[in-house]
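Input.
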Amino acid sequence: MDNTKNIPKNIFIQAFLNLKWFEWVMFLTMIFIGGYYVLTDNTHPMWYLIVNYICSIMGVCCIFLCAHASWVNWIFGIVNTSLYVVILAYNHVFGTMALELFYYLPINIMGLIMWKKHLDNKEKDKCKTRVMSWKMRIIMAIIVILCAIICHYILVKIGGATAWFDAFVVAVGLNAMFYEVKRYADQYYLWIIADFIAVIQWFILADVIMFTKKSIYLVMAVIGLFNWRRMQKERNLENT
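Output.
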């Protein structure tokens, strides 16, 4: 009797096998573009380029897996966040740096724990997904606007390099990460905004590696929104 079908896959392998061909194309694009600029960029120190490169690879792994509701994404997210703090400090992007260090890093650990408590009924590397009510979305939008105004005022005082962009990234990120931990598909409406702002931000700062990374984030935020809403409708109708 063949018992190989009963042997569970390695959870990391299972998570990455869910990626689509175009996601692999974006992943390879990140690897090649990042590698090229590590070897040819003469405007940044080598240590910065290496940290940036590793951070970008960990980041896109995190984003790809998150778009498929895989709890494994949090492990890559912890590494990505830790390295991204160094990059932001180097570029004087203080608002997002504080967000990453004091909010994203601890909440990555919290997200890993909470997602594993609500696993999908079919694939155990995935969590169950939920959707927000319209009332929750309106409240969320008001909070984002107020947070952005407050953050902008603070960043201007401390000399942030891109105060308005940074302020909105912080404001949107605070809410998006909260709803990501709570497993709401609507998190991706906020991530689309945050990633669009980040693409412009890193274009202004002329960082090709980070610009490529954030561009991939933006594409995956759109894909993630569709994936999560589909899972909630087809597989997790209890919305728990």
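DSSP finds nine helices and no strands in the chain.
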